């Protein structure tokens, strides 16, 4: 049987018995038909894996916590992705993959060429939807630290924040990652469909961001994000 990892937003202590939340209970009991007496792995974002035995596999699934193991799956690179909001499934996809690749934080950015317009309750619901994708990606990829995905902000608001080692993708740049000194902290700014405008790239460079070229081909936003993260992790992280 496939080993199961599930997130629980609650303190976890060895020896405790707890009832899993509604989603986790449904997934184990109704979807997987998980048998009583088998073990699963739980995590709550504190960096540890918790082995738990299923002691009741009825509607509300109950488990007993058996042990706690450090999970050294986090990259040594503290990498923030500032991503221009892409349409629908593209944004979901790049969030999922960036978490699998070890990103520490995601900041959705509203830019000039963003097609998606989010305000009020719709914005909060979309952020909550994205956070569920983050948790699912952590469950799948074996991470036990849950990265933050913030409420979307404008590019102007974002550029007012103090960051270390900021990079902005620009297909006319001459600098590549091989020209950049090794670092353990970085922020990468990537535009939505259509990229960042010339004015926005200038604003970013004036705010201290270094322009960065990934290659001689123009990439879609979801491809650019994944390629940038993967290369940074290869050179500076894990």
Task: Characterize the structure shown.
With 238 residues, this protein is of the alpha/beta class. It has two domains: 5-70, Hypothetical PUA domain-like, domain 1 (Ribosomal Protein L25, Chain P); 78-236, Alpha/beta knot (3-Layer(aba) Sandwich), CATH 3.40.1280. The chain has six helices and twelve strands. Strands 6, 7, 8, 9, 10, 11 and 12 form a seven-stranded parallel sheet that branches. Strands 1-3-4-5-2 form a five-stranded mixed sheet. Strand 4 and strand 5 form a beta hairpin. Helix 2 runs parallel beside helix 3 (120-141) and helix 2 runs parallel beside helix 6 (221-236). It is elongated. The two termini are 29 Å apart.
Distance between the termini: 29 Å
Average pLDDT works out at: 93
Q: CATH superfamily membership of the largest domain, which one?
A: SPOUT methyltransferase, trefoil knot domain
Main pleated-sheet profile: 7 strands, parallel
Approximate strand percentage: 15-25%
């Amino acid at each position: 049987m496939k080993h199961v990892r599930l997130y629980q937003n609650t303190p976890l202590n060895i020896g405790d018995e707890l009832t899993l939340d509604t989603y986790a209970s449904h997934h184990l009991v109704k979807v997987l038909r998980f048998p009583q007496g088998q073990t699963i792995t739980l995590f709550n974002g504190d960096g540890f894996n918790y082995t738990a035995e299923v002691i009741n596999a009825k509607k509300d699934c109950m488990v007993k916590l058996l042990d706690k193991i450090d999970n050294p799956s986090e990259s040594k690179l503290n990498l923030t992705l500032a991503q221009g909001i892409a349409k629908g499934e593209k944004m979901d996809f790049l969030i999922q993959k960036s978490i699998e690749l070890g990103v520490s934080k995601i900041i959705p950015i509203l830019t000039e060429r963003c097609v998606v317009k989010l305000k009020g309750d719709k914005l909060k619901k979309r952020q909550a939807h994205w956070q569920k994708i983050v948790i699912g990606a952590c469950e799948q990829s074996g991470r036990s630290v849950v990265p933050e995905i913030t409420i979307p902000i404008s590019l102007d608001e974002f550029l007012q924040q103090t960051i270390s080692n900021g990079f902005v993708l620009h297909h006319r740049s001459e600098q590549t990652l091989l020209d950049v000194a090794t670092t353990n902290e970085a922020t990468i700014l990537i535009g939505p469909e259509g990229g960042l405008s010339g004015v926005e790239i200038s604003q970013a460079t004036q705010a201290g961001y270094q322009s960065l070229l990934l290659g001689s081909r123009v990439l879609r936003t979801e491809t650019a994000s994944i390629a940038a993260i993967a290369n940074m992790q290869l050179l500076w992280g894990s």
